[in-house]
Design a protein that fits this description.
heterodimer; A: mainly alpha; MetI-like fold; 2 domains; two-stranded antiparallel ribbon; 2 strands; flat; B: alpha/beta; D-Maltodextrin-Binding Protein, domain 2; eight-stranded mixed beta sheet; four-stranded mixed beta sheet; 43% helix; globular; disordered N terminus; signal (chain B)
């Protein structure tokens, strides 16, 4: 009897926790089909979470009229995907060098990399703007290629500054250390070079770590807001998060905001669900969990 | 093998480091001019997502581009919430456009910071002298910006509700006094029909705080800074009258007249009957009138002792100091100064036209029009926020202090700390001289 009660209590606790996390998403999705008046009218009751009243796709139509949402979505997919792919390559290579190779100064480098984690982005955002504006840029002008200066208002300025990531390096480093070193030694005996070991042995064994880094890189890239506002002026290059502020004008369209939020949340949820098992496994195996 | 190890290790870490720093091969400078490519000029506006106002900007640009063949203006719109960040970042990279809009209270700071260049619009259809004072941005006696419109603050209420509770509907000749206003709130609260009878948008953020509440502080006799030289806030922002405002402001919450933090959409709450009186901008006047019809009362600000006050200055057009084609930029500025565009703005956005002539062409703002009183508020009560480069800092400090006061902080201490911080900022920046 006691064990049954315990089990029921455990389930009840989990249900409450699940509701705490799920209800905001349910509210967002349900509200995206309601008029503003109904959203506010339902706020004081459980109806706020239910698809009741006159439901329509009007908010979605209006949302696309107000914001070039498809373009923003495409930009974010492009920016986030490239950041993830480059991030996995660059950070895993760096972590491989730090975790698997013996060279003087690697501990100092690793400590330095970890130390950069405490520096908040906002503190160096403006100097970074200055830096990226000094970089050389090869661009197409008519039928000619020309060198110019400054990466402002480009895709690469939204990608490259965020490829190398201290946490990703640290995470890969921790994971790589859990892979037996004997595998390297056996491969070396067979004549493999370091890059072969990295590509053929270590990376194929690091699926969960790759999945975790993919998620942890994708999320901030997808949620990027301040940086694109500072370095991108052309509307056709903006990512989705900037689009949300289009709605906070004098006449705030709450239903449209919910429609837009639903649209940009779905890809994140899909990504997380796809990688969920690997994500949990790698967090557990690297000992990075809180 | 050792060599290959070192090579790969060095290459891997270097790749990460180089990408992280995004530095490497810096060359050249950002250049000293920007915003135009030959005779094609870039224009920035804060109206992304606000199609009503954006359409007017587009119309002016289209008309200008079609009116002559020398210059072409290209539009880039930004969302308002972080427009200032975009401008500041672009200024630091010397990538400002030739033409940009600027919120009135920031003109002095942007001019002092070297973002803006003085403009000369003599010869345009509408002389600057014809505009409402609050729609013209000057610094060190030079013209830096002008706006096509202003906005006005007012109390909005239902006449029926005020009458039902025996509350006098005030006029400009006889606005509410502090005692009268407090008594009205007490009656409304006592009726039990309103959890919070007064809605002043305390859930808002940013510039709303100084825009909405510093005029009340000024009506008490206080101010954000000593305007005589703009060199200190001590004795003014934390002076007796300012502290009296703080006490009163706090009492609105402690007496249950006003929410410490209002809802996400205060105007919706007012229109839904959740609050009886709303302190709000003229931008919601049309919506209120459509919903409430003749029952809508547009009420002047309370006279807390030094006369009714509202904030002045809204968005204005300016030219960047780094503009590589200032002649073209000024041509656009002059072109935009036609009465028809002042009228277009007012009609599209329900804002107050910046000139009397334009006001006579907008039905709502004509003498006798349903919102004519808002024009009079702007003419008679508008007080410019301090015209000093320190204003953005003052604004932030005032916001923090006012929020602390509503949260229960001692008003004298909160305002005293704000005044001290402002003075330190002034000292650090050598009083923004030069």
């Amino acid at each position: 009897m006691t064990s049954l009660l315990k089990r029921l209590g455990g389930h009840a606790g989990r249900i409450v926790l699940a509701l705490v996390f799920a209800l905001p998403l349910v509210f967002m999705l349900v509200s995206s089909f309601k008029t503003d008046d109904q959203i506010f009218g339902d706020l004081g009751s459980v109806s706020a979470f239910l698809p009741v009243g006159a439901l329509s796709l009007d908010n979605y139509t209006a949302m696309f009229d107000r914001v070039p949402a498809a373009r923003f979505l495409l930009n974010s997919v492009l920016i986030s995907s490239i950041t993830v792919v480059l991030g996995i390559i660059v950070n895993s290579l760096a972590a491989f060098a730090l975790a698997r190779m013996r060279w003087s100064g690697r501990k100092v480098v690793l400590t330095t990399v970890i130390a950069t984690l405490i520096v908040p982005f906002e503190t160096f955002a403006l100097p970074l703007v200055w830096w990226v504006n000094q970089l050389p840029l090869l661009r197409v002008n008519g039928f000619q290629l020309e060198w110019t200066t400054g990466w402002m208002d480009t895709y690469q300025v939204q990608i490259l500054p965020f490829v190398a990531n201290a946490f990703s390096i640290f995470f890969f480093h921790q994971f790589f250390q859990s892979i037996p070193k004997e595998l390297d030694e056996a491969a070396i005996m067979d004549g493999a070079g370091w890059f072969t070991i990295y590509r053929r042995i270590v990376m194929p064994l690091s699926g969960p770590a790759v999945a975790t880094v993919a998620i942890l890189t994708f999320l901030p890239a997808w949620n990027s807001y301040l940086w694109p506002l500072m370095v991108v002026q052309s509307e056709e290059l903006r990512p989705v998060m900037v689009g949300i502020s289009y709605f906070f004008q004098l006449n705030v369209g709450w239903g449209q905001i919910m429609a837009y939020s639903s649209m940009i949340t779905v890809p994140i949820l899909a990504l997380f669900v796809a990688f969920q098992r690997s994500f949990v496994n790698s967090i557990a195996s690297t000992g990075v969990k809180g | 093998m050792v060599f290959r190890t070192r090579r790969l290790a060095a290459a891997s870490v270097a790749a990460a480091a180089a990408t992280a720093l995004v530095a490497g091969c810096a060359s050249g400078s950002g250049g000293s001019s920007s915003g135009a490519s030959g005779d094609t000029l870039t224009l920035w506006t804060h109206n992304a997502g606000n199609s009503a106002e954006l359409d007017v900007v587009k119309k002016i640009i289209k008309d200008f581009n079609g009116s002559q063949s020398k210059y072409k203006v290209e539009l880039q719109s930004f969302p308002q919430t972080d427009y200032n960040n975009s401008v500041v970042a672009a200024a630091s990279a010397r990538k400002l456009p030739c033409l940009l809009d600027v919120d009135g209270p920031n003109v002095a700071n942007w001019a002092w910071g070297g973002y803006l260049a003085p403009i000369d619009v003599t010869g345009s259809q509408v002389p600057v002298e014809d505009q409402l004072d609050s729609t013209v941005g000057t610094y060190n006696d030079k013209l830096y910006s002008f706006g096509h419109y202003d906005v006005s603050l007012a109390f909005f209420a239902r006449k029926s509700v005020l009458n039902e509770h025996g509350i006098r509907i005030p006029t400009m000749d006889k606005p509410w006094t502090k005692d009268e206003f407090d008594a009205a709130l007490a009656k409304l609260k006592k009726s039990g029909k309103f959890t919070y009878p007064l809605e002043m948008g305390t859930g808002g953020s940013g510039e709303w705080w100084p825009y909405a509440y510093s005029p009340q502080l000024q009506s008490f006799g206080g101010d954000l800074i000593d305007r005589n030289g703009y060199k200190t806030a001590t004795g003014t922002l934390d002076g007796k009258e300012s502290v009296e405002w703080g006490d009163w402001f706090q009492s609105l919450v402690t007496k249950g007249y006003m929410a410490k933090k209002s809802g996400a959409d205060p105007n919706k709450d007012f229109l839904a009957g959740k609050s009886a009186i709303q302190w709000d901008g003229s931008w919601n006047a049309t919506k209120n009138a459509e919903k409430l019809g003749d029952d809508l009362a547009i009420i002047p600000p309370v006279d807390f002792g030094k006369g009714p006050k509202i904030g002045g200055a809204s968005w204005q057009w300016a030219m960047s100091s780094t503009c590589s084609n200032k002649e073209g930029a000024q041509e656009w500025l002059k072109f935009s100064r036609q009465t028809k565009y002042f009228v277009d703005y007012a009609k599209a956005t329900s804002t107050i036209p910046a000139t009397n002539e334009a006001a006579t062409q907008v039905e709502d703002y004509q003498p006798g029009g349903r919102f004519a009183v808002l024009v009079q508020f702007a003419q008679k009560y508008a007080t410019l926020r301090p015209v000093t480069p320190a204003y953005p800092y003052i604004s932030t400090e005032f916001q923090k202090a006012a929020q602390d006061i509503l949260a229960g902080a001692d008003p004298k201490n909160a305002l005293g700390q704000a005044a001290k911080n402002i003075d330190n900022n002034l000292k650090t920046n050598n009083n923004y001289s030069g």
